[in-house]
Amino acid sequence: MLFYHVNARSLNRNFDKLQFSLNSINSKFSVVGVTETWFDDVNTLYSLCDLHGYNFEHSSTVGRGGGVALYIDANHTYVHRPDLSVFFEVLIESLFAELITSCNTSLLTGVVYYS
In which domain of life is the source organism classified (predicted)? Predict the structure, then answer.
Protein backbone atom coordinates (compact mmCIF):
# COMPACT_ATOMS: atom_id res chain seq x y z
CA MET A 1 0.00 0.00 0.00
CA LEU A 2 1.20 3.48 -0.86
CA PHE A 3 0.23 6.64 1.00
CA TYR A 4 0.52 10.30 0.00
CA HIS A 5 -0.05 13.52 1.93
CA VAL A 6 -0.36 17.12 0.83
CA ASN A 7 -1.09 20.37 2.65
CA ALA A 8 -3.38 21.93 0.03
CA ARG A 9 -3.96 25.43 1.40
CA SER A 10 -7.38 25.38 -0.34
CA LEU A 11 -8.18 22.21 -2.22
CA ASN A 12 -10.66 24.04 -4.47
CA ARG A 13 -7.93 26.46 -5.55
CA ASN A 14 -5.10 23.91 -5.78
CA PHE A 15 -6.89 20.77 -6.94
CA ASP A 16 -5.26 20.93 -10.39
CA LYS A 17 -1.83 20.96 -8.72
CA LEU A 18 -2.77 17.88 -6.69
CA GLN A 19 -3.93 16.05 -9.82
CA PHE A 20 -0.76 17.02 -11.67
CA SER A 21 1.41 15.86 -8.78
CA LEU A 22 -0.37 12.49 -8.52
CA ASN A 23 -0.28 11.96 -12.29
CA SER A 24 3.45 12.75 -12.35
CA ILE A 25 4.19 9.85 -10.01
CA ASN A 26 4.15 6.49 -11.72
CA SER A 27 2.17 4.75 -8.95
CA LYS A 28 -1.40 4.71 -7.69
CA PHE A 29 -1.73 5.53 -4.04
CA SER A 30 -4.02 3.59 -1.74
CA VAL A 31 -4.76 6.69 0.30
CA VAL A 32 -4.19 10.38 -0.35
CA GLY A 33 -4.43 12.49 2.79
CA VAL A 34 -5.10 16.22 2.49
CA THR A 35 -4.78 18.89 5.16
CA GLU A 36 -5.98 22.49 4.93
CA THR A 37 -8.75 21.73 2.45
CA TRP A 38 -10.44 24.94 3.61
CA PHE A 39 -13.77 23.16 3.04
CA ASP A 40 -16.73 24.43 4.99
CA ASP A 41 -20.34 23.34 4.86
CA VAL A 42 -21.50 26.50 3.10
CA ASN A 43 -19.20 27.53 0.25
CA THR A 44 -17.58 24.31 -0.94
CA LEU A 45 -18.21 22.67 -4.30
CA TYR A 46 -17.07 19.13 -3.51
CA SER A 47 -17.79 17.97 -7.06
CA LEU A 48 -14.90 20.15 -8.30
CA CYS A 49 -12.49 18.02 -6.28
CA ASP A 50 -13.47 14.60 -7.62
CA LEU A 51 -10.37 12.45 -8.05
CA HIS A 52 -11.09 9.70 -10.57
CA GLY A 53 -10.74 6.23 -9.06
CA TYR A 54 -11.00 7.39 -5.46
CA ASN A 55 -13.71 7.62 -2.82
CA PHE A 56 -13.75 10.89 -0.92
CA GLU A 57 -14.16 11.42 2.82
CA HIS A 58 -13.77 14.82 4.44
CA SER A 59 -14.28 16.83 7.57
CA SER A 60 -15.24 20.47 7.09
CA THR A 61 -13.68 23.27 9.05
CA VAL A 62 -15.10 26.30 10.82
CA GLY A 63 -13.84 29.61 9.47
CA ARG A 64 -10.86 30.05 7.19
CA GLY A 65 -8.13 27.41 7.04
CA GLY A 66 -8.19 23.86 8.34
CA GLY A 67 -10.24 20.98 7.01
CA VAL A 68 -9.00 17.44 6.32
CA ALA A 69 -9.78 14.85 3.68
CA LEU A 70 -8.95 11.33 2.58
CA TYR A 71 -9.10 10.03 -0.96
CA ILE A 72 -9.27 6.23 -0.74
CA ASP A 73 -8.61 4.03 -3.77
CA ALA A 74 -12.01 2.85 -5.01
CA ASN A 75 -10.65 -0.72 -5.21
CA HIS A 76 -10.24 -0.80 -1.42
CA THR A 77 -12.98 -1.67 1.03
CA TYR A 78 -12.98 0.68 3.99
CA VAL A 79 -15.02 1.90 6.93
CA HIS A 80 -15.11 5.57 7.88
CA ARG A 81 -14.18 5.82 11.59
CA PRO A 82 -15.81 8.97 13.03
CA ASP A 83 -15.38 7.48 16.51
CA LEU A 84 -11.62 8.12 16.20
CA SER A 85 -11.81 11.57 14.65
CA VAL A 86 -11.09 14.62 16.77
CA PHE A 87 -12.15 18.21 16.19
CA PHE A 88 -11.28 21.09 18.48
CA GLU A 89 -11.96 24.39 16.70
CA VAL A 90 -8.78 26.31 15.84
CA LEU A 91 -6.59 23.59 17.33
CA ILE A 92 -6.81 20.09 15.83
CA GLU A 93 -8.81 18.29 13.15
CA SER A 94 -8.58 14.64 12.13
CA LEU A 95 -10.22 12.01 9.99
CA PHE A 96 -9.74 8.24 10.08
CA ALA A 97 -10.68 5.22 8.00
CA GLU A 98 -10.13 1.51 8.47
CA LEU A 99 -8.98 -0.25 5.31
CA ILE A 100 -9.88 -3.92 4.99
CA THR A 101 -6.95 -5.79 3.46
CA SER A 102 -6.99 -8.87 1.27
CA CYS A 103 -6.11 -11.02 4.30
CA ASN A 104 -9.26 -9.90 6.16
CA THR A 105 -7.16 -7.81 8.48
CA SER A 106 -7.52 -4.09 8.81
CA LEU A 107 -5.21 -1.13 8.54
CA LEU A 108 -6.08 2.12 10.26
CA THR A 109 -5.17 5.27 8.35
CA GLY A 110 -5.89 8.90 8.97
CA VAL A 111 -4.93 12.49 8.53
CA VAL A 112 -4.39 14.96 11.37
CA TYR A 113 -4.10 18.75 11.08
CA TYR A 114 -2.79 20.70 14.03
CA SER A 115 -3.00 24.47 13.63
Answer: Eukaryota
Q: Which residues contact 81 (CB under 8 A, 6 or more apart)?
A: 96, 97, 98, 108, 110
To the question of pTM greater than 0.85 for the whole model, the response is yes
Q: Cα–Cα distance between 39 and 35 in angstroms, integer?
A: 10
Judge contact between 12 and 38, C-beta under 8 A. Answer: yes
d(CA 103, CA 115): 37
CA angle 49/50/53 to nearest 5° reads 145
Q: What is the pLDDT of residues 37-91, one digit of tens each?
A: 988 766 666 778 899 999 999 988 776 778 899 999 999 999 999 999 988 876 8
